[in-house]
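agent> step 3/5: call structure_predict on target 'PrgI family protein' (Agathobacter rectalis).
agent> reason: downstream docking stage needs a structural representation; sequence fetched in step 2, passing through unchanged.
tool.input:
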Amino acid sequence: MVIEINKDIDRYQESVAMGLTARQLIFSIASVAVGGGLVLLLYKYIGLTGAAYVAIPCVAPIALGGFYSFNGMNFYEYMGKKLHFMFGNKALTYVSTEGEPAIKAFELEQTGQVKKKGKKIQDIEPQTNESVVKKQEEFEAMKKKTRNMLLGLVAVIVAAVAGIAAYKAMH
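tool.output (status=ok):
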Protein backbone atom coordinates (compact mmCIF):
# COMPACT_ATOMS: atom_id res chain seq x y z
CA MET A 1 0.00 0.00 0.00
CA VAL A 2 1.38 3.43 -1.04
CA ILE A 3 0.28 6.52 0.86
CA GLU A 4 1.05 9.88 -0.70
CA ILE A 5 0.83 13.24 0.99
CA ASN A 6 -0.46 16.20 -0.98
CA LYS A 7 2.35 18.76 -1.34
CA ASP A 8 -0.08 21.67 -1.79
CA ILE A 9 -1.48 21.47 1.75
CA ASP A 10 -1.79 25.27 2.09
CA ARG A 11 -4.57 25.41 -0.51
CA TYR A 12 -6.53 22.42 0.76
CA GLN A 13 -10.21 23.14 1.42
CA GLU A 14 -12.75 20.60 2.50
CA SER A 15 -16.00 21.11 0.61
CA VAL A 16 -19.34 20.64 2.33
CA ALA A 17 -21.90 20.87 -0.47
CA MET A 18 -21.68 21.55 -4.20
CA GLY A 19 -17.95 22.27 -3.98
CA LEU A 20 -18.41 25.07 -1.45
CA THR A 21 -16.68 25.33 1.89
CA ALA A 22 -18.82 25.63 5.02
CA ARG A 23 -18.14 29.38 5.20
CA GLN A 24 -19.11 29.91 1.56
CA LEU A 25 -22.28 27.84 1.98
CA ILE A 26 -23.39 29.74 5.11
CA PHE A 27 -22.79 33.15 3.56
CA SER A 28 -24.46 32.10 0.29
CA ILE A 29 -27.60 31.00 2.14
CA ALA A 30 -27.57 34.18 4.23
CA SER A 31 -27.19 36.44 1.17
CA VAL A 32 -30.00 34.66 -0.73
CA ALA A 33 -32.26 34.87 2.33
CA VAL A 34 -31.57 38.59 2.89
CA GLY A 35 -31.91 39.43 -0.79
CA GLY A 36 -35.09 37.42 -1.25
CA GLY A 37 -36.58 38.85 1.91
CA LEU A 38 -35.84 42.43 0.85
CA VAL A 39 -37.28 41.90 -2.62
CA LEU A 40 -40.44 40.28 -1.21
CA LEU A 41 -40.90 43.08 1.34
CA LEU A 42 -40.26 45.96 -1.06
CA TYR A 43 -41.88 44.52 -4.22
CA LYS A 44 -45.34 45.88 -3.37
CA TYR A 45 -44.03 49.38 -2.69
CA ILE A 46 -41.35 50.11 -5.28
CA GLY A 47 -41.67 47.34 -7.85
CA LEU A 48 -39.35 44.50 -8.77
CA THR A 49 -36.60 46.62 -10.33
CA GLY A 50 -36.46 49.10 -7.46
CA ALA A 51 -36.50 46.27 -4.91
CA ALA A 52 -33.59 44.58 -6.71
CA TYR A 53 -31.63 47.85 -6.74
CA VAL A 54 -32.15 48.23 -3.00
CA ALA A 55 -31.34 44.56 -2.27
CA ILE A 56 -28.05 44.37 -4.22
CA PRO A 57 -26.02 46.73 -1.97
CA CYS A 58 -27.35 44.86 1.08
CA VAL A 59 -26.56 41.40 -0.31
CA ALA A 60 -23.12 42.11 -1.82
CA PRO A 61 -21.21 42.54 1.48
CA ILE A 62 -22.79 39.38 2.87
CA ALA A 63 -21.80 37.34 -0.19
CA LEU A 64 -18.31 38.84 -0.22
CA GLY A 65 -17.90 37.80 3.41
CA GLY A 66 -17.98 34.17 2.35
CA PHE A 67 -16.04 34.25 -0.89
CA TYR A 68 -13.55 37.14 -0.81
CA SER A 69 -10.08 36.56 0.57
CA PHE A 70 -7.00 38.77 0.33
CA ASN A 71 -3.64 38.06 1.98
CA GLY A 72 -5.24 35.55 4.32
CA MET A 73 -7.91 38.00 5.51
CA ASN A 74 -11.61 37.60 4.83
CA PHE A 75 -13.68 40.49 3.46
CA TYR A 76 -14.67 41.92 6.84
CA GLU A 77 -11.12 41.87 8.21
CA TYR A 78 -9.78 43.46 5.02
CA MET A 79 -12.40 46.22 4.93
CA GLY A 80 -11.88 46.87 8.66
CA LYS A 81 -8.15 47.35 8.06
CA LYS A 82 -8.81 49.49 4.99
CA LEU A 83 -11.23 51.77 6.85
CA HIS A 84 -8.84 51.98 9.79
CA PHE A 85 -6.00 53.10 7.55
CA MET A 86 -8.27 55.55 5.72
CA PHE A 87 -9.81 57.28 8.73
CA GLY A 88 -8.33 56.04 12.01
CA ASN A 89 -4.64 56.22 11.19
CA LYS A 90 -2.59 59.34 11.82
CA ALA A 91 -0.54 60.48 8.87
CA LEU A 92 3.20 60.26 9.37
CA THR A 93 5.09 63.44 8.64
CA TYR A 94 8.25 63.23 6.63
CA VAL A 95 11.05 65.76 6.90
CA SER A 96 13.69 65.46 4.26
CA THR A 97 17.27 65.44 5.46
CA GLU A 98 18.47 66.05 1.93
CA GLY A 99 17.52 69.69 1.63
CA GLU A 100 19.60 72.47 0.14
CA PRO A 101 21.74 73.08 3.27
CA ALA A 102 22.69 69.40 3.50
CA ILE A 103 23.59 69.29 -0.18
CA LYS A 104 25.78 72.39 0.16
CA ALA A 105 27.53 70.88 3.17
CA PHE A 106 28.15 67.66 1.26
CA GLU A 107 29.56 69.58 -1.72
CA LEU A 108 31.87 71.59 0.53
CA GLU A 109 32.99 68.38 2.22
CA GLN A 110 33.75 66.79 -1.14
CA THR A 111 35.80 69.77 -2.32
CA GLY A 112 37.90 69.57 0.84
CA GLN A 113 36.93 72.95 2.27
CA VAL A 114 35.61 71.31 5.43
CA LYS A 115 37.43 68.64 7.35
CA LYS A 116 35.47 65.51 8.07
CA LYS A 117 36.09 65.36 11.80
CA GLY A 118 35.25 68.01 14.34
CA LYS A 119 34.38 71.03 12.18
CA LYS A 120 30.92 71.82 10.88
CA ILE A 121 29.70 74.60 8.66
CA GLN A 122 28.39 77.52 10.70
CA ASP A 123 26.20 79.15 8.05
CA ILE A 124 23.81 76.22 7.59
CA GLU A 125 20.38 77.05 9.01
CA PRO A 126 18.32 74.37 10.74
CA GLN A 127 15.21 73.33 8.83
CA THR A 128 11.87 74.59 10.08
CA ASN A 129 8.81 72.40 10.38
CA GLU A 130 6.40 75.09 9.13
CA SER A 131 5.97 73.45 5.74
CA VAL A 132 5.44 70.07 7.37
CA VAL A 133 2.77 71.48 9.68
CA LYS A 134 1.07 73.22 6.75
CA LYS A 135 0.97 70.02 4.71
CA GLN A 136 -0.42 68.12 7.71
CA GLU A 137 -3.19 70.72 8.12
CA GLU A 138 -4.03 70.50 4.41
CA PHE A 139 -4.18 66.71 4.65
CA GLU A 140 -6.52 66.85 7.67
CA ALA A 141 -8.77 69.36 5.87
CA MET A 142 -8.93 67.13 2.78
CA LYS A 143 -9.70 64.09 4.96
CA LYS A 144 -12.55 65.96 6.65
CA LYS A 145 -13.89 67.12 3.29
CA THR A 146 -13.79 63.56 1.91
CA ARG A 147 -15.60 62.21 4.97
CA ASN A 148 -18.30 64.90 4.63
CA MET A 149 -18.73 64.10 0.93
CA LEU A 150 -19.12 60.40 1.73
CA LEU A 151 -21.75 61.12 4.40
CA GLY A 152 -23.57 63.43 1.97
CA LEU A 153 -23.60 60.72 -0.69
CA VAL A 154 -25.09 58.22 1.75
CA ALA A 155 -27.73 60.79 2.75
CA VAL A 156 -28.64 61.40 -0.92
CA ILE A 157 -29.00 57.67 -1.57
CA VAL A 158 -31.22 57.22 1.50
CA ALA A 159 -33.33 60.22 0.46
CA ALA A 160 -33.68 58.82 -3.07
CA VAL A 161 -34.86 55.43 -1.78
CA ALA A 162 -37.32 57.15 0.57
CA GLY A 163 -38.59 59.31 -2.31
CA ILE A 164 -39.09 56.28 -4.53
CA ALA A 165 -40.98 54.49 -1.76
CA ALA A 166 -43.18 57.54 -1.12
CA TYR A 167 -43.88 57.96 -4.84
CA LYS A 168 -44.83 54.30 -5.25
CA ALA A 169 -47.03 54.45 -2.13
CA MET A 170 -48.98 57.43 -3.47
CA HIS A 171 -49.58 55.97 -6.94
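agent> step 4/5: record observation. The first strand starts at residue 69 and ends at 70.
agent> proceeding.
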